[in-house]
Amino acid sequence: MIEGDIMNNLELEKMANEIRKDIVTAVHSAKSGHPGGSLSSADIFTYLYFEEMNVDPANPKWEDRDRFVLSKGHVAPGLYSTLAEKGYFPKEDLKTLRHTGSYLQGHPDMKHIPGIDMSSGSLGQGVSVAVGMAAAGKYDKKDYRVYTLTGDGEIQEGQIWEAAMWAGHRKLDNLVVIVDNNNLQIDGSVEDVCSPYPIDKKFEAFNFHVINIDGNDFDQIRAAFKEARETKGMPTAIIAKTVKGKGVSFMENAAGWHGKAPNDEEYEIAMADLEKAGEALCQK
């Protein structure tokens, strides 16, 4: 750690690479799951839990903690891997993902998993929940902030925009909606399936402060969350352009890896890619 609890970008990159290894390992062990979006979101998860959010793994239900809702709940491997690296539960438990009897289910379960603030998985609902949490914070005069991660395919759901309209109307400046804009969903590119573009203009129309970034660049991620904290009187939407399957050569920008586990041979290639990336980071 640098300067107390502040991590520099190199440390964040190293942590994100470890989280990507955990994602691939967990999905491979489960023989099912969603690696593509988990990998594209890994840098966002890393920054949220190791830099941005005020949370305590030793006290997951701390009343004044910042809240996070994973609206696109199928990328649970990304969130679980981050929580494990943060110390919420043992890393070795990641290998039990989706196994019968495991508390690490295919979608987040707040009743059984430490650090999960809301059970999710039904697409389109997480932003509504996050808006409710943010409103509760305002009513209770609490200082906590609320973050939610949604997908660019997920925002085809109408409930997202009902929630956005209410959040903008209520001026919930303690709310940050992050869109993982990797441009791919299960059936192909989002623009071909049902285009949500321009995403930024839509959120602006619902009275959000909007920031467009490269969601795999820690300089831009850091600046965006700083800007969000400084924005008063309106919620913030961060449109994070990312690479689906980021870090694994054969998964990058491939819709087929939305919800498929690597076999043994593919697992070895993926881990070799990430080991090589980790070695390169150690040379910096």
UniProtKB/TrEMBL annotation:
PANTHER family: TRANSKETOLASE N-TERMINAL SECTION-RELATED. It comes from Agathobacter rectalis (strain ATCC 33656 / DSM 3377 / JCM 17463 / KCTC 5835 / VPI 0990) (Eubacterium rectale). GO terms for molecular function: metal ion binding; transferase activity. Its cofactor is thiamine diphosphate. Residues 14-267 form the Transketolase N-terminal domain. Keywords: Metal-binding, Thiamine pyrophosphate, Transferase. PROSITE patterns: TRANSKETOLASE_1. Belongs to the transketolase family. This is Transketolase domain protein. Signal peptide: none annotated. It comes from the Bacteria. SUPFAM superfamilies: Thiamin diphosphate-binding fold (THDP-binding).
